[in-house]
Amino acid sequence: MMREMWLSSRDNVNLLFEICHQAFHLPLSHPGVVNKLTELYSSWVQDSNKPLFMEAPAPPIIVSSLPVSPSPAPPPAPSLSVLPWEAISGYSKFDRSDVRAGLQSSLKMFIAHTSQLFLHQQSGSNGHQLEIQVDSGRRILKLYQEIVQQWTLDGETWLYLLSVLLHLTITLLYDESSPPPENRDTSLGGSIADQLLQ
């Protein structure tokens, strides 16, 4: 029932995604939140029964030239005593056509949200936070692999994913302002380089 409510209108879906987006900006002291969201996105990507927002928008209804009657009679208004509870409460009357954003835009949104985790700046002295970021980063890169393996991406989504991966590679592996670390496991880029370059 909660899933039904959250996905019942575009405003609810937008609020849900804004919450998810902001969660990836949380400090790394909250790894459970990031990992749960990554699992949620992964379940949406792998599930053959996609959430409504991942479905393609309904095609627009094209009105053909129908003969117009000169004065159509308005339908009679039903009395409140006849209306079922759903009609009064409006619960089952949600217009869900505006919720459908399509698979490709949903995948791009997942990529945009999750890539924020890699932008957290780390001080080299905090090994525990680096461990957390490496673990979460590996989960996110695995999600990207699942997206590629599970769905056929259009050109725009491919380009978006590749540009994010290229940006991550340049940002994490190439820093001309400082010499490379002696031990590659002391940096995020060095720790996930194998998976990033796969």
Automatic annotation (TrEMBL):
<feature type="domain" description="Ral GTPase-activating protein subunit alpha/beta N-terminal">
    <location>
        <begin position="130"/>
        <end position="198"/>
    </location>
</feature>
<protein>
    <recommendedName>
        <fullName>Ral GTPase-activating protein subunit alpha/beta N-terminal domain-containing protein</fullName>
    </recommendedName>
</protein>
<dbReference type="Pfam" id="PF20412">
    <property type="entry name" value="RALGAPB_N"/>
</dbReference>
<feature type="region of interest" description="Disordered">
    <location>
        <begin position="178"/>
        <end position="198"/>
    </location>
</feature>
<dbReference type="InterPro" id="IPR046859">
    <property type="entry name" value="RGPA/RALGAPB_N"/>
</dbReference>
